[in-house]
């Protein structure tokens, strides 16, 4: 009987959760099924998910099709109405093995990690599943879930709920397990990572948690973080960034715009000057630092001058790894009620922003040629530098190892490396 297949859309956290979905479905013995893990960030992501659902049904008429993820959480009736869909799952139940059992099957026994079957999570870690991705390189470790902020363009808080943090002790236990299993790099993930700890006793900060992991688990070789809000980076994190070499010299910032008026209309909590100051501070602490960012093109009321300030921010902050999002109307959000720009202008500005981002990446990669860096081998012929850039090579290096390489060139958005002698 055919195996279960998981199709993923959206963010790194969704990709991580798809691993847990596959693990849960396997534990339940699910076969001949397709699970579509949707994203609600843009209308395009939802369109692609619907397209994937229709294609899955055409390719396998007998398969059970599940739809889950943020888009399904926010509008379950929309996906339940699709004739190809058999079941719609919420973001919590999608991670539990008992979700994938036939209706007449007794529940699986609760595993040793704790939690009653079907019990919703009190925090980001879900009872009944493991929430670190052991066995892959790098390993993802979810430390936070949900968001308490209400940016005017975003529906993610409705799909993920309020901010919930995993207690430091539980994170340390899982990180210790990942390190002991030989994972060379751990990536801490969350919806609003810099909000870590606001819901925990004593309100520990992200920096405190990271410092605890690095102090208590010397086996951690490389630690990397997913997207950070420039308005919330705490003093402990800044101190660690300057002194702890196991903390990778790469930050991805949730900037969204380079114009102060647009940032206010987005209900962001930082200014253009704040973004530039964060970039400068990071490089002052670690000159080898590489920066990435999320930027939205064509937000409602964005003038050409306002857009150009976002365009200029790429160079001013030295943003090498930019995720460009054409603004997408999300029904029910405040931004959906603002004066919208013509679709053609949004598309054209996104293309210009991507062009600037491509040039910035090329310049960043060129500046790294003739340097040396530790490369995490992710698969044969491909690895990831400490500063996040992809590195291609021809040497027979085994995946999951870290190899020092000399950078000898760059090509098509990645670096070319050879083992250092």
Describe this protein's structure.
The protein has 421 residues and is of the alpha/beta class. The protein has three domains: 5-100, Methylthiotransferase, N-terminal domain (Rossmann fold, 3-Layer(aba) Sandwich), CATH 3.40.50; 139-367, pyruvate-formate lyase- activating enzyme, CATH 3.80.30; 372-419. 34% of the residues lie in helices and 21% in strands. It contains twelve helices and 17 strands. The chain has helices at residues 12-27, 43-59, 70-74, 76-80, 156-160, 168-180, 206-216, 235-243, 260-266, 272-285, 304-317, 343-368, and strands at 5-8, 33-38, 64-69, 87-88, 139-142, 144-145, 164-165, 185-189, 222-225, 250-256, 290-297, 319-326, 372-379, 382-385, 390-392, 402-411, 414-419. Strands 13-14-15-17-16 form a five-stranded mixed barrel. The longest helix is centred in the C-terminal third of the chain and has 26 residues, at 343-368. It is globular and about 55 Å long.
């Amino acid at each position: 009987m055919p195996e279960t297949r998981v199709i993923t859309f959206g963010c790194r956290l969704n990709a991580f959760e798809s691993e847990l979905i596959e693990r849960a479905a396997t534990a339940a013995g699910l076969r001949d099924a397709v699970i579509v893990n949707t994203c609600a960030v843009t209308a395009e992501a939802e369109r692609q998910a619907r397209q994937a659902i229709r294609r899955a049904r055409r390719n396998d008429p007998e398969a059970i099709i599940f739809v889950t993820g943020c888009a399904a959480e926010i509008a379950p009736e929309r996906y339940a109405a699709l004739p190809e869909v058999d079941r719609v799952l919420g973001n919590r139940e999608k991670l539990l093995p008992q979700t994938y059992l036939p209706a007449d099957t007794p529940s699986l026994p609760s595993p040793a990690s704790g939690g009653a079957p079907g019990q919703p999570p009190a925090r980001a870690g879900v009872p009944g599943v493991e929430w670190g991705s052991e066995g892959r390189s790098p390993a993802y470790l979810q430390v936070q879930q949900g968001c308490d902020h209400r940016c005017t363009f975003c529906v993610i808080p409705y799909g993920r709920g309020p901010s919930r943090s995993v207690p430091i002790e539980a994170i340390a236990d899982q990180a210790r397990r990942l390190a002991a299993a030989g994972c060379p790099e751990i990536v801490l993930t969350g919806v609003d990572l810099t909000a870590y700890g606001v819901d925990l006793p004593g309100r520990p900060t992200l920096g405190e948690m990271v410092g605890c992991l690095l102090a208590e688990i010397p086996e951690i070789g490389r630690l990397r973080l997913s997207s950070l809000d420039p308005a919330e980076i705490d003093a402990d994190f800044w101190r660690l960034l300057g002194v702890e070499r196991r903390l990778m010299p790469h930050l991805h910032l949730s900037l969204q715009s380079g114009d102060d008026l647009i940032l206010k209309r987005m209900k962001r909590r930082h200014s253009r000057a704040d973004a530039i100051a964060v970039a400068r501070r990071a490089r002052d602490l670690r000159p080898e630092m590489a920066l990435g960012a999320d930027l939205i093109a064509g937000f409602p009321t964005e003038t050409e001058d306002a857009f150009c300030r976002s365009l200029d921010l790429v160079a001013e902050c030295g943003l090498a790894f930019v995720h460009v999002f054409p603004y997408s109307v999300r029904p029910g959000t405040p931004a959906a009620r603002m004066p919208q720009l013509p679709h053609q202008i949004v598309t054209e500005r996104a293309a210009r922003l991507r062009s600037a981002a491509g040039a910035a990446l090329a310049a960043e990669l060129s500046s790294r040629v003739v340097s040396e860096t530790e490369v995490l081998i992710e698969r044969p012929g491909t690895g990831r530098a400490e500063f996040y850039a992809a590195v291609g090579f021809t040497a027979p290096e085994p995946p999951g190892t870290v190899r020092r390489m000399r950078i000898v060139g760059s090509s098509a958005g990645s670096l070319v490396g050879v083992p250092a002698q």
